[in-house]
Amino acid sequence: MLAKLAQRRNVALGRRAILGLGAALTGTLAFGRDGAHAETSETSPPADAPWSQSIGAGVVDRPYGKPADFEAGVIRRNVPWLTAGTESSISFSPLQHLNGIITPNGLFFERYHAGRPDVDPDQHRLMIHGLVERPLLLTMKDIVRFPSVSRIHFIECPANGGMEWRAAQLNSLQFNHGMISCAEWTGVKLSTLLEEVGVKKEARWAMVEGADGAHMNRSLPLDKCLDDCLIVYAQNGEALRPEQGYPLRLVVPGWEGNVSIKWLRRIKLGEKPWYSREETSKYTDLMPDGTSRGFTWLIDAKSVITFPCPERPLSGPGLYEIRGLAWTGNGKVKRVDVSLDGGINWQTAQLHEPVLSKALTRFSLPWRWDGKPALLESRVIDETGYVQPTIAELRRQRGSNSVYHNNSIQTWQVKPDGSIFDVQLG
Amino acid sequence: MFSWARRGVPGSMAALLATVMAAVAAEPGHFGYGTVPTPQQIAGWDIDARGDDGVGLPPGSGDVSKGEAVFAEQCAACHGTFGEGEGRFPKLAGGIGTLKDDRPELTVGSYWPFAPTLWDYINRAMPMPAPHTLSADDVYALTAYILSLNNIVPNDFVADRNSLARIKMPNRDNFLWTDPRPDTAAKPCMSACADPGAVKITSTAEGKDLTPRTTGPLDDMRAK
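The joint structure predicted for all components is written out below.
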């Protein structure tokens, strides 16, 4: 990054030859080393920075924009030792660097079972058949003609936090919570398409299937399909990203991400569920008594403090704003409480508008840190009255082998030097 | 739209009428976009076989010994000759009786509730580098082989649409298909919710050396 900065500055400095290269480099290094604290850099007051005394790049220099070069570290990341390869794997959104409730399209978490296909939209089709009056084959051009809706919803992989069932393992917000993202989705209501094909009265379930190599498929109860499911082609105002199912995906609001089939190509109605591999071998929850729970679709209410966090420690005593995100598959977040002492005492945080159903919701609480050790936690209560549990409570009910649906309270340990660690309390 | 409620129709009846009206409003084919797929078009993509009763399994068959040969060629590189799993690739056999253990082993034999699901999954998703390229007979043979590795069928077993649907997998009766959540009962207590002496750190990620770096380029770390 330093080299890049120096290079850019030299270009910018071309017109200011009076400044020697040595001085430019010195200034650069000071900036790079101390970040925002470099007070005497020639780019900060009283000096006028080089970019204030030169002309910048013109329009369409970057016809499709990209983040500042200085943000190059803000990327999706994976845990290489977790999976055999990257084609059936997961990457995590950098929640520690995100602001607001919308995940930028390039940072939306990825989950593939057979890699990311690059689907040609002209050749893509959606077939709807089975227990319907009139089977239908739709092109993308057909699909965009249907009445459209836009909705903001999160998608969370139910394995988010799955590595923490037994113990605190990963010292990171990104890796412990980054299998969630939130976007504005635009498309057609699934109910509109089902009315168009005419649902036969024996139909109770839908099998939804992707065009990827996994031919990923799941069963969904017809009630949910007719309630709030969306068939979407756009994400935050632009076409879906290939990573999120371009050109067409299902969004099943509030339910585990796996059912929101990407690269959607087929919907078949039937009278029973399919019991596919992804809803038997996987995405089922093993209990300590050896039984398993299947069709556990709902994302229970969950919250997490996103600042401070292991990636973004505190820089000395003083006033801070504790910030975080909360969400629930049940609908809206009603309240978030924050504890500074590991759950002994709680204060209610402020929720930030908009508070939308089945979407990420921001919360914050001002905090004057005295430099002493602290144990930060957040706890969400949703509109059904459901209260986010501790990991100890979850383990009492489900043991520690159920992999999915760990929606427990996250504890961040604050040390006197301001560093933050992922811990679990007994 | 006028309001039924204002005209004195009770709420529940208004809701019912709204549902009826919505159903009437959109007859099948109302928009008329797209085409009705031909039976051949449907057949090409209609690949699913239902797990619990095998509905959708195609004609064809395959036995254990043919399965062993196809497996050696197409699958063993990742899953091991006997389904033991190479490296972090999934194990396909073993683990029966371990589901209550501290470290249970979930495989086709120990965990999967339905045999037709195995045919369906191999057919749709395997072999990983070239999914959905095997013949129905080969998929039957592979299914027979993997079931035999788990001692669920004898070595002379022939898999077909009828025989697979009749198999009772060892873990079949241990699934609950209705979600019992909420199963926790946390209370929104605000003060003195726990005894300060009882708040102890029981585990920490500090020093575990399992976390890839979260700055700079991607970390290619392997487990230590």
